[in-house]
## 1
Amino acid sequence: MTETTVQTEQFAELVRAGGGGSLARAAALDLRSGDVSAPARVAALCLSAAVTNPERLVETYDGLADGWVGRAPMADPIVGAGAPGDVPGDLWDAIWALVFDPDAGRDPADITVRTAALAGLLPSGFNDRLASMALRYPGVADAATSGPPPRFSLDDLARCPRDSLAGNLHSLVVDDGFDLEVLDRDALALTDLPHPLGYLNVRILQCHDVWHEVAGYQTTGLHEVGISGFQMGQFGHHYSSMFLGVVLTKVAFTQPFEGTGFLLDTILSAYAHGRETPPLIGVTWEEIWDRPVEEIRASLGVRPFESPYPPGILEDLRSA
């Protein structure tokens, strides 16, 4: 048995065991003190919350924030009943393929599609657990009553002032080559998911770049990590928890200390930002397209993200 096999099996046991706030807080404190086991423990707790025990997602990240930053987000607890479940072998195969692929992450579109595909390998009934937890987040139940949101129209965006939210989004799509929806909602069969997941996943696909603009996240590698924490804090976004769990696992096996602490600084500051920002999931953006972003922030009570590092630091490091 190779050393890597032993390490992955030990890590899988940590994921299956799961944990919660107290274990997360202890792991974060141990990471600060230089404990060599801490990066794997942190990553395993985050991956467990994504693939075995979604009821403990908020408890886990609140605990990490308490241990790493020194305080949990100022928001009500969000908890549910549920024990860690099984992780199918094909899901582990896909996770390890991402973790040990040296090129994973270089192409944002590729890692987005590959991470999204992990959800299709989760055990039967897992989506029902996700749906039950999603309804516990502020604003979700009311927002999801509207049914599947209609697609955005590029023509509608083009009719708005250039310095408006719609104008900014139009520029991202036309000038920078972004998509009006990050992934194809029909190809992913999102409307087949249990209520309210269908609504949530469709809405965030089309609002991801809107939230970038309104919440103050730039379109850089570091801020894509950050906005995943923000989305997770807002409504427990499952893709975001999967993405962050996989990224932390990848770093735990490749750059355990320098990488894990660096990521936690960004993830936890953005997660707290999401938990402490009024719910955005129910905002009808189409009714305020023509307003400047600063005006929208003021009306919704949104402060822009305070990045712990320069937003383009990952790109700068790659080009150095």
Note: The mean pLDDT is 92.
## 2
Amino acid sequence: MISSSKELERDRSLLSKFEVLADLEKTVAELIQKHEEKRELWFPSDFLPADETTNEDLHLRQIRERAKGIPLSARVALALNLITEEGLPHFHRLIAVHLGSDSFWKNWNNLWTAEEDRHGNVIRDYCRDSHVMNFTAVERAQFQYVRSGFNPDWDKDPYRVFVYTSAQERATQISHDGTGRVCGTYEPTLEKILHSIAMDEARHYAFYKAVFSEVLKRDPDNALESAITILPSIDMPGHTLRNFNEYADVVRRSGIYGPRDYITVVEALIKAWGLETLTGLKESGKKAQEKILAIPGRLKKVAEYIESRHASKTFQLEFVFNKVFTMA
């Protein structure tokens, strides 16, 4: 009987959340219009020409020569970026499942998917042309990643979609920009590609962040309870990959993306959503608010612990032809 009461309460909560999201239809339409007005639509062929006028031999010679200088660590980061971008089917499905594939939300999901689809395409084209990594190994890992699925324990909570995507889009932006920064010294074309992807992620971040701001205005207590289940530590795309922790360690040591970057993500969201100044909350909302505001402090302790145990490490990873390299 107790279990049935809890299930009924949960069902009512979910119903109220979907009612809140239904109330956002006009707002979402305006956000989509604003997004498209600011967006510069680009395509992979803008960076890597592939029509009949292209001198393919010259293109390949030049791009491979420039790519020779890219450090092995940056190549690992690039491989990880490629694999996670090509995990797009997981995220289209999650948004469709949690927000509904037959509602107005499908307009955003389809647009977002079309824009995101170019990211994996252009990185893949560059990596194949430049020979910067063991492409067969990367393809096998990408296949395994998509096949293994991505099923976060969100309990069909649609609010969590916007918390996760806000944090994840910002984190991905940092990762692409960081990889481009390291590679740009040797390969300006790749830097331009990754910067363009990062700017897309920034605009997607702005959309999701704005939606959750609207949710907070309408249903702050439930919104905060959803946020506290996501923000302490998000599962980055690709975390199911074999040897993911090794790849992530390389990326962290490269200065591209690590725990301290995630701290900046959480701090930015707390500020953007005005979580410190929210008032009029119920007890459950107050508790969630308190826990969220404590997250940056806890994350800093984690970062300090990792840094205190820092020592040089040698890597040998299949993505970069099992070449041995050492990082401080």
Note: The chain has a mean pLDDT of 93.
## 3
Amino acid sequence: MAGLIRFDQEDIVNDVQKVVTSTWSDNTNNLQVAYTSSAQALLGSATSSGAHYIEVYHLATTQSVQYAVAYGHKNGSGSLDFTNDVGAYGNSPSKNIYNQYRQLVFGDEASNFTFNDYTPDDIYVINVNRARYKHNLKPGTLDLRLSGSSTLTTLHLTDDSLTQTGSSTITNIGRQFNIVSGSLGVRLGSNLTQVTNSGSYGLFYPDAGFIILNPAAVDHYIDGLVPGTSQNTANNNHQKLFNHISGGGYFILDSEEKVSSQFYFARAKNGEFNYTTNPSFVDINGNVNIDSFIDNPTTYITTIGLYNDSGDLVAVAKLSQPVTKDFTKEALIRVKLDY
């Protein structure tokens, strides 16, 4: 048997492929029906998780969480203060949410969300559960529909990644695209701001897995999403957002994963690997058991072993069926490693 053979530079090839799958459970493409959990029913308690966000499930609450909805206000309006006392006014779940997301996006708690030159005091948030996607959400696949409360109007929302030919603003947490009226990454109309004096509909952060919506712009198109902004009052605005998403019954968003592969081309030339150390090949005296193998030995390649520079076996590749090898044959076997 030949000794270890070092791969030449041209024998090793690197490749990266993008794999796209549905974000939602059970390979569901369109999340049409959504459920909330009774465990989060304490919307009126300032210290409960339900006052901060509502988790949304697929099929039933025994399934995994698909995404969460939340409401943020930079002054803390629209939710109960944690402590009703001097110096604590305005410290509430809505203020926590606003501060959390501007810290993520801008890296500080002084910057405000601006939607095409319009800066509201509040935001709606749709945050996809981290377990639902791989590396990132795929731009151009978003198709979210929000229904009006008292009309048959439905707002179709997507990102503008295709309209902008993939270009984006880079933030503290990665790419930022605009949320616009349209579908599958294509903006409907020529203007980013489609609501006069209210800015654009929102922002999409595919690398961090969440959507920020501009309440003022969205409510101009569909009624019922204008947030309550009473101080120290549980207006439950995030429940309003969930109702409009559930009423729209249409939420498509794909997940994207980059799979890096390394290909090793293992070559067995005609004069190599024609003998074996298998004990059955020879008798106790070292003579070849099969006479025809004396002048024309034949082996069967079943496994490729990859070794490091220290001679340690680090990976093994098994062939689907043995490959016959003798002095009249050469073999080229491609080994693929994904990581």
Note: The first strand starts at residue 12 and ends at 22.
## 4
Amino acid sequence: MSELGLMQAVKKVAGPYIATLPASSAVPPAFWGALTANESGLYCVRGLDPMNFPPRFEPSVYKHLLDVSTGSAKAYGNIGLDAIQGGVEEGMHPRTGEFHSTFLTEEFANAQARGLAAMQDAALRNLASSWGFTQVMGYNLLIWNDSPDDLIDPGAHFGYAGYLMAGFCRQYGLNPKAQFREMFCCWNTGRPDGKCFDPAYPDNGVARMGLWGQA
């Protein structure tokens, strides 16, 4: 598929949601369209429902978060044990532990403990995966106290992405209407001068922005 065809597919799937962003938004719609093409363009080409975009699991991130959760490391960036525990327990009933200790036999309780451990690992994997149009990392849910369902909600996703991009622009003093290459680098690496896994990632993004108006 041509680059223009890719952007047309992205605009068909993501364009209606990008169009709902406020006109006062500092980041232009073309940036969000190109970022979506970089991160989940293949899903758009396939015509997938945005709610069914598969998450992308990041094993190295999972290892870091697991180290923090087990006490092998004090923190992963600014994510400490308390934050991870809060994120893992978010989906559990607040009286789960009390119920298990009071009503279950030892054998059943042990089975339930294994089930809870699996639930906790699944939650940790959610934090170590990226989601939705722009593949927002799940550990950002620790900021918002939300769930992955919110990140794959097409009507809400770009609001989360915009919050994160505004943070990058503030942190590094970027002009959100001009320094697009640096913004793509931030999204991919966390820094405006970071080394992208795909060296063409920021240049592809800038080129795709130029096609958004033609799509």
Note: The first strand starts at residue 56 and ends at 57.
